[in-house]
Design goal:
single chain; binds iron/sulfur cluster; five-stranded mixed beta sheet; 16% strand; Lambda Exonuclease, Chain A; alpha+beta; 261 residues
Length: 261
């Protein structure tokens, strides 16, 4: 078999994660481009990201709680399209989602003061070829600290990781750090994950060794992606852990893969 569709032109952290969890999921999502229905959680996350992105497009002194609240309707209009409304049964979840978004904004303003943040990048697209692999990412925010160093900031609307799993939470951002170094010419000093639903922050210093290892691992994945693409099939890796929340269970079953219930 060979694919009619081209490979994506670059590997993003989310594509990398798809591949690492199950190469067949990467095939469905990124080669065949089979649409994944939206969920309430992803939709809420997109609405919150939209509000915070546009809040940081305002001059610093205007980034108030009231300004964030005034951005809600545009965020819902943009992020909750008719197709997404059908996916998530909007009539049944709208009121709760609006309450959740308001609560998240209240929590966010307790976590940091956006009027005091020197953001030099908001939803910034960065891409570079590293170790022969084309990598790409979108930074939620890139902040400049008082000493000129940089901080990568990533908003998270899900739960913070359990104790012992914190390193996994930073895996995507280590790729962002590698991209920053390649494109901006400066390795960020630290990565900050803002868990805006729960009001907690994870902060780690950037280690050049770890960033280099992540970039090498991404390059190895890119080589394997090209090999599987040339072979015409990405192997499925069914397991309760991988398949539990996968949107492609039915597609796999239709193609004869034994997916755990
Ligand atoms: S259902 Fe399981 S085997 Fe199929 S793509 Fe998803 S994770 Fe992979």
């Amino acid at each position: 078999m060979s694919f009619d569709q081209p490979l994506p032109s670059a590997l993003s952290p989310s594509r990398l994660k798809d591949f690492q969890e199950c190469p067949r999921r990467f095939q469905y999502s990124n080669v065949e481009r089979i649409r994944q229905p939206a969920t309430v959680a992803t939709t809420k996350g997109n609405v919150v990201h939209h509000i915070l992105e546009h809040l940081f497009h305002l001059p610093p002194e205007q980034r108030t709680h009231d300004a964030a609240l005034s951005l809600r309707e545009a965020a819902f209009d943009n992020e909750v399209t008719d197709e997404i409304q059908a996916d998530i049964d909007w009539a049944t979840c709208e009121a709760q989602m609006r309450r959740d978004v308001d609560a998240i904004l209240t929590t966010y303003f307790e976590m940091e003061d956006p009027t005091a943040v020197a953001a030099i990048g908001v939803e910034r697209n960065i891409e570079a070829t590293i170790n022969d692999a084309p990598l790409r990412g979108i930074l939620d925010r890139l902040d400049q600290n008082d000493d000129g160093s940089l901080t990568i900031v990533d908003y998270k609307t899900g739960k913070p990781p359990r104790a012992g799993y914190e390193n996994d939470a930073f895996a995507n951002s280590q790729i962002y750090a590698a991209l920053c170094e390649a494109e901006v010419g400066q390795l960020p000093r630290n990565i900050r994950l803002l868990y805006v639903t729960h009001g907690s922050t994870l902060d780690v210093p950037v280690s050049p060794v770890v960033v280099s290892a992540r970039a090498k691992s991404a390059a190895t994945v890119w080589q394997r992606i090209n090999t599987f693409y040339a072979d015409g099939e990405f192997p499925a890796d069914p397991s309760p852990r991988n398949c539990r929340w996968c949107a492609y269970k039915d597609v796999c079953r239709e193609r004869g893969i034994d997916v755990p219930a």
